[in-house]
Amino acid sequence: MDFILALLGLVILSPIFIILCFWIKLDSKGPIFFKQKRIGKDKSYFNILKFRTMSIDTPHDMPTHMLSDPDQYITKAGHFLRKTSLDELPQIINILKGEMSIIGPRPALWNQYDLIEQRDQYHANDVRPGLTGWAQVNGRDELEIDVKAKLDGEYVKHISFLFDLKCFVMTFYAVATSKGIVEGDGT
After folding, report:
1. What is the pTM of this model?
2. What DSSP letter does each residue of 47-83 carry, written as one string?
3. Disulfide engineering: 75 pairs with which of 2, 28, 119, 135, CB 3.0-4.6 Å?
4. Residue 99, C-beta contacts closer than 8 angstroms, at least 6 positions apart
5. 26 by DSSP, 3-state: which?
6. What pLDDT, in 10s, does the model give residues 95-133?
7. What is d(CA 143, CA 27) in angstroms, rounded to the nearest whole number?
């Protein structure tokens, strides 16, 4: 089902993809896409795809909320893409490749050892990561690592079509309200 929905989404959203590609290229120099090493199912590695929202001199492999001044790195187009979560759209390609699902725990950075270890307790590393998920719609960046891992575990424990549907619908509310987005470490 993930493959069919992702393929359908890619076809429907292709005009938006094209517009965003041009905007990113015109806004700042560098590639259109951003690739980053993430943890997949069974702790395998894969490169997640996103639209690039930051300048090419941004420190790599660091969550944005840990940067002391992320605004200095975020491009003009990037502010809009991040606020609307449109920067996540290229992950449809990760879904088509079988590396991700539409719903599941968000893929941890390869070096987020604390999150990876906490998720092991709840078997959240045993499922494909998702474009959105239970932790995403319940706080996103605002969540402490242990809370995020516990929510990911709740998802794994209760995986079902209806629970996925609930997460999917709640995602639209979370995106529309920018719920749980934290940019910078607050200093």
Report:
1. 0.86
2. EEEEE--B-TTSPSSS-GGGSS-GGGTB-HHHHHHHH
3. 28
4. 40, 46, 48, 128, 129
5. helix
6. 999 999 999 999 999 999 999 999 999 999 999 999 999
7. 32
Report how far residue 187's alpha carbon sits from residue 167's, in angstroms, rounded to the nearest whole number.
32
CA distance 113 to 108: 9
What's at 184, amino acid-wise?
G
Q: How far apart are CA 102 and CA 60, in angstroms?
A: 25
> Which residue in the block uniquely carries the two structure tokens 């606020």?
83
The whole-angstrom separation of Cα 105 and Cα 29 is 32
Residue found under tokens 């941004």 = 58
- The first and second tokens of residue 12, run together, are 């429907």
**Crossing angle for the helix pair 113-121 and 145-157, to the nearest 10 degrees:** 40
Q: Which of 94, 95, 93, 54 is nearest to 183 (CA)?
A: 54
**Helical packing angle, 76-84 and 2-27, nearest 10°:** 160
